[in-house]
Amino acid sequence: MRLLILLAVLASIVAAALYGVRSGAIDVPPDWNPWAPLDVNAEPNFLTRYKLGRLSKSSEDCQRVLATTGIQYERLDDRATGPACGFFNAVRIERTSSRIAKPFSFSCRAAVSLALWERHVLEPAAQRHFGQKVATLEHFGSYSCRNVYGRAKATRSQHATAEALDVAGFILEDGRRIRVLKDWEQGGERGAFLREVRDGACRFFDGVLSPDYNDAHRDHFHFDRGPYRVCR
After folding, report:
1. 37-42 long-range contacts, CB within 8 A, separation 24+
2. Please, which residues have CB within 8 angstroms of residue 210's CB and are 6 or more apart in sequence?
3. Can you give the pTM of this predicted structure?
4. pLDDT digits (tens, 9 = 90+) for 113-130
5. Is 119 helix (H, G, I), strand (E, B) or coil?
């Protein structure tokens, strides 16, 4: 009986504290407040994925966060382009923190994940391994109304709803080109850099596939938002 009373008291204290934080009566830093908006520039912590996931439930909240990332984009109208294909709360990205070879369509929540990855993984990794920034992000595209691997009897790919991006490589400020196809197995700084940016993407995307996954990904990284968690 005493244990039950103690647990009830503790539950009441926790509930009161949570209510105080949510109502603003208890002041905590935004990074540690689960109800505060996601700040893409803040150092990620255990609440980052929760806040990122919350953006899936509100188009306008997602758009407000995306507007703070520095990504250059224009909003796309929602539309269906085929059976289980189309855009919802998507944008056409013209530039990220780097130049991109070609604009691409991406869901808002995936674009926020991309901004987090560039800010907290790609940029630090480039500085650590090469002492300079990534000037250009090379990719094989995002939206495509197709099934997984293009197979007729497979399920729809995440590309079919603009939730996925295939990253082929990077061009550094000094012009050096780092490609997944050429450099993944080379070892040294290039290989270490590619593995670091692959591993780091798993913090912000749901599906991350690389040459370690299968031969179909020998020349690119596949980054997507849901529905399954995989990092390989």
Report:
1. 37/61, 37/64, 37/65, 38/65, 38/112, 39/68, 40/65, 40/68, 40/69, 40/112, 40/115, 40/116, 40/119, 41/68, 41/119
2. 180, 184, 198, 217, 221, 222, 232
3. 0.88
4. 999 999 999 999 999 999
5. helix
